[in-house]
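Reviewers asked in the last cycle whether our approach scales beyond single polypeptides. To address this, we selected a multi-component target totalling 452 residues and predicted its structure end to end. The input consisted of the following lines:
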Amino acid sequence: MERLSEATDKNQTRVRSRARLANVTALDAVSIITTKRDGGELSDAQIDWVVDGFTNGTVADEQMAALAMAIVWRGMTRRETARWTAAMIASGSRLDFTDLPRPTVDKHSTGGVGDKITLPLAPLVAACGAAVPQLSGRGLGHTGGTLDKLEAISGWQADVPLPRMREILADPGIGAVVCAAGADLAPADKRLYALRDVTGTVESIPLIASSIMSKKIAEGTAALVLDVKVGAGAFLKTLDGARELATAMVELGTDAGVRTVALLTAMDTPLGRTAGNALEVAESVEVLAGGGPADIIELTVTLAREMVALTGIDLDPADVLADGRAMDQWRAMVRAQGGDPDAPLPTAKHTQVVRAERDGVLTRLDAMGVGLAAWRLGAGRARQGDPVQAGAGIEMHAKPGDSVTAGQPLLTLHTDTPDAFARAEAALDGALAIEESAEKPATPLVLGRVEA
Ligand code: URA
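The resulting structure, written as structure tokens, was:
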């Protein structure tokens, strides 16, 4: 009896101290939430505690969601955002490539329709003499993911163990890796991004900036060029919003010792003439072979010049693209990850053509409409883990400013699942406009530049 009551007492003490702990935890989380809700500034210790607690499960999802919503409304100062980013980096491991014999530089795009720039850019910059370590993601929603595009190449593997990644980066004949980020890269961001996605808390400049930059800084690159998209097909619609995000990210990179520059680039109409995984690989290979659409060439060379300048290498990437060295590097890079650069790319089982209804000038080809249609054709996924169709997507036979005649093909839709055509056409409703005559729009591709 004696023993039993002693054990019961001990149990009760344990239960009471657990309750006290939970209470303290809840109180701390609540005071952090209310501080931000009321417009206060969080201390470094509060930020470290809440990010760590969220990662290890002591801060509940509903508490973090409430804090994220308070941040959406109240914002964070530069110091808070830098500390938040550092706490997310500290939640996992940070790669270190400082021992490589070549300078490291990477590019990150905030995402756009037909944005296949990484594919020609990474080998081009590697051919200039830099090492490009790019940890990338898969597509979700209307913009495609770089890994999904590269997986259209027969045999290509997105998972590269770290020792192999180092070997590839150190090899001057390869020098670029585009691979999946491991689970240990900023795990706090992985959890937080998933939570923000379902709680209406994505739209916050400090949260977006810290989310993107925590992953890029943890990736271990010494220099970074950001391509911040602006316009109908981007998730920031205004130049002011894009500039604010670019500035926040450049500040975070600079504060963390990563040389960072951002370009603001137009995303009202898709980049190039294809949207969809294998279709975009084929277009990228055209660019590496010396052809391809003018906008893809321009953006690839512009971003490559920024990247090469950050490494201090004295070469013009335009020359390296023109003489075929970037193509050689691409072939080596594909092979290094198990891919066959000569294998035919997959094609979709069914196609359908969208024709011009009348003569005139194509004045609108809306990036969001095209992205949504490509997604509905099977090029993208609705939920993480869903499969994508390698051959699905859209070819664009005319771009804004081009003259068209009635009956001329404007788009070819590609899919393995023909019942998707009707849904894709619905997404394109209103996305195209033909007017009797129009000045060829002289919209520049690069709209601004932000540096520290
Ligand atoms: N991409 C990210 O990685 N994080 C965001 O918060 C938004 C876009």
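The first helix runs from residue 2 to 37. We regard this as preliminary and will revisit it once experimental data from Aim 1 are available.
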